[in-house]
Specification:
The complex is a heterodimer of chains A (388) and B (158). With 388 residues, chain A is of the alpha+beta class. Chain A has helices at 17-23, 42-52, 106-116, 198-206, 238-241, 268-275, and strands at 29-35, 121-131, 141-150, 154-155, 159-172, 175-189, 280-284, 290-291, 306-310, 314-323, 335-342, 347-353, 365-372, 378-384. Chain A is built from six helices and 14 strands. The radius of gyration of chain A is 26 Å and the shape is elongated. Chain B has one domain (14-148): Hotdog Thioesterase (Thiol Ester Dehydrase, Chain A), CATH 3.10.129. Helices cover 20% and strands 33% of the residues of chain B. Chain B has three helices and five strands; from the N terminus they run βαααββββ. The chains are: A alpha+beta (388), B alpha+beta (158). The interface between A and B is large, with 67 and 55 residues.
Chain lengths: 388, 158
């Protein structure tokens, strides 16, 4: 997913400072008694009905599902900011010189903060409207808008980002006519499409937003991220989708490749071992406790002194999951992702080879082997007992 | 089962499916009619630059099509009370979306659910419908519609 050069995640880690700052926007008003650009009118109703193939209501009212149209900023607002002309860009907060705006406030400021952090794309995921009474030509709509919530960072098939929910209440002459709750995902694209890949990649991005509600799609159970090895097929996790060496390399954009591992000072020794077909485990020089994945300090005593030793390569399946859905590029479900407990006492997340995924069982003996994924990537995997 | 709401709908009634050809024209016209000028709904290159294989339908058009679908079944005098949708697989040009629906609840007149203290009109029963719009990639939209039927039931001519 990352070969097209998706950006790094500077805020990587359990503490998400960006999220903390985004949460400050929750409850903030994005618009107060903001007037719609146009009163409800017959031409806009008719144009909308033509586009939708919707009959014009015989009583001359506006179709109910047209509700939000009366609050939209329109194209003119595009000249004021770079985000304001969609339903995401909240006319109400766009600071376009009308009441209730103020560019530094509310929704636009929130979106700008996300843009600045690299979450530049947007997609709408949910729309919930309630209608108190039909709108008629001549009605003048005003609306209040509030930022209801900002989600923690979520990783979806589209990319990693934050869900932002706003609620808008519409009135005419002070009387409620409807409400509108709207949820968007502001995200960092997982990859950009080129013309040459348009057709074949359509399906791989197809369900994107369908997975957004679940965020990390349940793969947390695989322990992904604890090893730094992108073997689980969870191409949507942050740890698997970023990393030096992943950006712009390979040139084989047509063929999806497995995510590249993140190699850094703390784990470089591990990957050097892999390239030499050795599975290296750390051991604390002070207390002797083995540890994996690679870390700069000892979990048991805190010592920063350590040595590496080669694991014998024998272990058992401590736990496992069989991935059926969602399908990630470069992975061919179903396949087994296992937490293997090595004889040396540490555990590693990897794939099980040589055994049909439905035959994998807890306690199954496994043995290390190295899988050549492509010309740049080799991974330690585990062959199930009894396999030829 | 029941093809229209001419007769009083009951729980479990299926709405007749509606196939919608997702043309480039529909996507662009829908985006502009809903005053949504996000480039991903009309500019293919911009859409690709943002990680999408092509332009795709905006949520407000989907919302309008869901409204059209249930209105065609319930008749033009039915009144929509609530439409709540969630998007899944995008509607790209060239695809076909098939809308289906099923009545999940029916309440008699004066059951009093939808108004929430807001002045409404006189009306008959309230009907809740689960709607789904599927394309070649999966479910584009799933959602729930709550509407009230006119009292007496008339004019469900479509």
């Amino acid at each position: 997913m990352s070969e097209d050069g998706s950006a790094q995640h500077p805020e990587e880690g359990s503490h998400d400072e960006l999220y903390e700052s985004l949460r400050a926007y929750e409850g903030r008003t994005a618009a107060t008694a903001k007037p719609g650009k146009d009163p409800v009118n017959e031409p806009m109703i008719r144009h909308w009905c033509e586009a939708m193939g919707h009959p014009v209501p015989p009583d001359g009212t506006a179709p109910a599902t047209m509700l939000q149209v009366w609050t939209m900023a329109g194209l003119g607002a595009a000249h004021m900011t770079d985000q304001p002309y969609g339903p995401y860009g909240a006319y109400g907060a766009s600071g376009d010189g009308q009441a209730g705006g103020g560019r530094g406030s509310g929704y636009v400021a929130l979106l700008e903060a996300l843009d600045d952090a690299g979450y530049t794309s947007v997609v709408a995921t949910d729309c919930e409207q309630e209608y108190a009474r039909p709108l008629r030509p001549g009605d003048t709509v005003t609306f209040d808008s509030v930022i209801e919530s900002v989600s923690p960072r979520k990783t979806t098939k589209l990319g990693t980002g934050y869900f932002v929910t706003t609620r808008m209440d519409l009135r005419t002459g002070g009387e409620p006519v409807g409400s509108h709750r709207f949820r968007i995902l502001k995200y960092r694209p997982a990859h950009a499409h080129t013309r040459s890949t348009t057709g074949e990649n359509a399906a791989t991005t197809g369900e994107n937003v369908a997975t957004t509600g679940g965020g990390s799609t349940g793969n947390a159970t695989t322990g992904n991220g604890t090893t730094g090895i992108a073997t689980t097929g969870d191409a949507t996790t942050e740890s698997a989708t970023t990393g030096p060496g992943s950006a712009g390399k390979g040139g084989g954009a047509r063929e999806p490749r497995r995510p590249r591992p993140v190699v850094n000072r703390d784990n470089a020794g591990f990957w050097e071992g892999v390239s030499a077909h050795k599975l290296l485990v750390q051991r604390c020089d002070d207390c002797g406790t083995p540890r994996f994945p690679w870390l700069p300090g000892c979990n048991a005593c805190g010592s920063a002194d350590w040595s590496a030793f080669e694991a014998a390569g024998r272990g058992t399946v401590y736990s496992y999951v069989v991935m059926h859905h969602p399908a990630f590029p470069a992975f061919d479900p179903p396949y087994a992702v296992a937490l293997v407990e090595l004889e040396e006492g540490v555990r590693i997340v990897s794939n099980i080879t040589g055994v049909a995924c439905e035959k994998v069982r807890i306690g199954m003996p496994v043995e290390l082997e190295f899988l050549r994924v492509d010309d740049e990537l080799e991974l330690p995997v585990f062959r199930g007992a009894g396999a030829a | 089962m029941t093809a229209t709401a001419r007769t009083a709908p009951v729980e479990g009634d299926e709405l007749p499916p509606l196939e919608i050809q997702v043309t480039r024209t529909l996507i662009v016209a829908g985006a502009l009619a809903t005053r949504d000028f996000q480039d991903v709904h009309h500019d293919g290159d911009a859409a690709r630059g943002k990680g999408s294989p092509d332009i795709f339908m905006n949520i407000l058009t989907t919302n309008g099509l869901v409204g059209r679908y249930v209105t065609a079944w319930a008749g033009p005098h039915a009144r929509l009370r609530k439409v709540a949708i969630r998007l899944g697989a995008p509607n790209y040009p060239g695809d076909t979306m098939t809308l289906t629906g099923r009545v999940t609840a029916v309440r008699g007149p004066d059951a009093g659910e939808p108004d929430r203290g807001v002045p409404g009109g006189t009306e008959g029963g309230a009907v809740e419908i689960a709607v789904r719009g599927a394309n070649s990639l999966g479910n584009h939209v799933t959602g729930t519609v709550l509407l009230t039927l006119p009292e007496p039931q008339e004019g469900a001519e479509s």
